[in-house]
Amino acid sequence: MDTRRLQIALLFIIAFLSNITAIATIPEAKPSVISVPTKPDAVFTVYLKQPQDAQYLANKVDIDRYSGKVLHVINSKKAQLGDRILNAFVPIHYGTFGGLPTRILYVFVGLTPTILFFTGLVMYRLRRRPQKVTENSTYSRIHTRRN
User: Fold this and answer.
1) Is 43 helix (H, G, I), strand (E, B) or coil?
2) What is the mean pLDDT of the chain?
3) Are 45 and 62 in contact (CB under 8 A)?
4) Which of 17, 31, 59, 60 has the fewest C-beta atoms lying within 10 Å of its C-beta?
């Protein structure tokens, strides 16, 4: 087995152990993302989702890559009021709070600026188009001489 494969295998084992440590820190949460360190001073970051959370990144556990100690924990249940308010905006932002009808509404709301742009462009082009002068038009009556 070459060294690169060995490093990948060890990294996988450490990530798995980090996942177990994170679950032990917030037991009712399920892991959603594991961020593997890429620099020597970086840490493993495990993002977890609790049943009441609207987003997958609301809970975070930072784990030291060398000792396995938990360095920092963000638990959405124990978050301060400001963090809870910001977390509440996530379902509104993504349109996931009302199911399929809300997502369909968000599609139409999202397409509205495009529709307004093209209808405005058509109206502008029609207004800027030179109009034909006919005999009965006001322009022709005023600017033509009758002898």
Assistant:
1) coil
2) 81
3) yes
4) 17
- Could you give the domains of the chain? 3-97 (3.10.450)
Burial class (CB in 10 A: 0-12, 13-18, 19+), 37: middle
Task: For residue 51, give the 3-state DSSP assignment.
Answer: coil
59, with CB counted inside 10 A (0-12, 13-18, 19+), is buried
Determine contact, residues 31/47, Cβ cutoff 8 Å. yes
- The reported pLDDT for the residue numbered 135 is 62
CA distances from 57 to 11, 31, 52 (A): 22, 9, 13
pTM exceeding 0.70: no
Under 8 Å between Cβ of 47 and 59: yes
Contacts of 115 (CB under 8 A, 6+ apart): none
Spans of the chain below 70 pLDDT: 1, 19, 131-147
